[in-house]
Specification:
By secondary structure, this protein is of the alpha/beta class. It contains 14 helices and 12 strands. The strands form 2 sheets. It has a 7-stranded mixed sheet with strand order 1-7-6-5-4-2-3, with helices on both faces. Strands 8-9-12-11-10 form a 5-stranded mixed sheet, covered by helices on one side. The N and C termini lie far apart (about 65 Å). It folds into 2 domains: about 240 residues, Aspartate Aminotransferase, domain 2; about 130 residues, Aspartate Aminotransferase, domain 1 (Alpha-Beta Complex). The longest helix has 20 residues. The structure holds pyridoxal-5'-phosphate. Pyridoxal-5'-phosphate binds next to helix 3 and helix 4.
Amino acid sequence: MHDFSSKHIETESVRGGLNQDEQYGCVVPPIYLSSTYTFSGFNQPRAHDYSRRGNPSRDLVQNTLAKLEGGQGAIMTSSGMSAINLLCTVLLKPGDLLIAPIDCYGGSYRLFDSLAKRGAFDVLFIDQRCPIQLKSILQKKPKMVLIETPSNPLLNIVDIEAVAQIAHEAGSTVVVDNTFLSPVLQKPLALGADIVVHSCTKYLNGHSDVVAGAVICKDPAVSMEMAWWANNIGVTGAAFDSYLLLRGIRTLVPRIRQQQETAEKIAKFLDEHPLIHRVYYPGLESHEGHELAKRQQQGFGAMLSFELNIEESEFETFLNALNYFTLAESLGGVESLISHTATMTHAGMSAQARVEAGIKNNLFRLSVGLESSEDLLSDLATALSYFKP
Ligand SMILES: *Cc1c(COP(=O)(O)O)cnc(C)c1O
């Protein structure tokens, strides 16, 4: 068996798991659906005994995920939320403190808040861009610090290296949710994080047909502990999902680079449009996190939000006029999506909490897909042309 290792993410993402079939010489690995495995003899287990604990299809995608993030081990889970839940299970006990971003993913907020209310651990939500609030990390000595950058939906950028340094001084484990950029555009472990977590449902799979998650660790011992717990609590990913995810990852690099190129054009177009009050895209110089994103990321990504100056009663007309932006939650697929933050992804937040987070009622979020940038730009231009500035 040829075990390659390349320092180029283009190669690693394409070649994961290829050419390993010794029975038929399949180039692409088969899907191993078996839930159980024969013992080769009495008291002689093989590498796998039961698919919750270990599965060859899942092994392949886990190896690829670890290589892409530069980690020593990866666990693929049934969803992004089960990956985050796994982290809480392994890292946090009653009385331990978790520090999470004030603008973290809604599902993560709900999980932390509900588990904390049951006494599983304590949680504190802070703005990690604020030096005064960051000092609370040193004072309160949290067990785990979760960073999410860029954040949703305002694309706020947090300095991973700086937060990791403070958190390590306080003895914390540093976790970065890298869902919005993928390892193509951001490498949290190289910036000082201990663990990367993903919703593979988004860019990694990229085709909006799998729900999956991943935990990738810098330390092999921590990775083994995560794998033990993932089997223990039963959150490991399914064989078919593993296969689809590995297949999606093969095109990750060109997908995200092309989507990003189009997103940059759309951000510029919207930024100059008289009906758009404000565009949130780290690639724009006007974005508060632009310089930091330039330093920390290998690109600005393909997600952006904008405030649209039309009446709320006109939102439906605008959305119906779009042909190539589908009104749906989620992100990172090959198809372009639009979502209205207040009624969709952040509907669970109170109106007051949204105001405090700077999320206006006229905020829309785009996940820019792989369609022709000309089509996407003219689609937006046409839909906007129905309204007067
Ligand atoms: C979608 C998402 C999650 C949750 O992942 P699921 O696969 O939907 O469970 C976590 N974090 C971020 C940033 C996300 O966008």
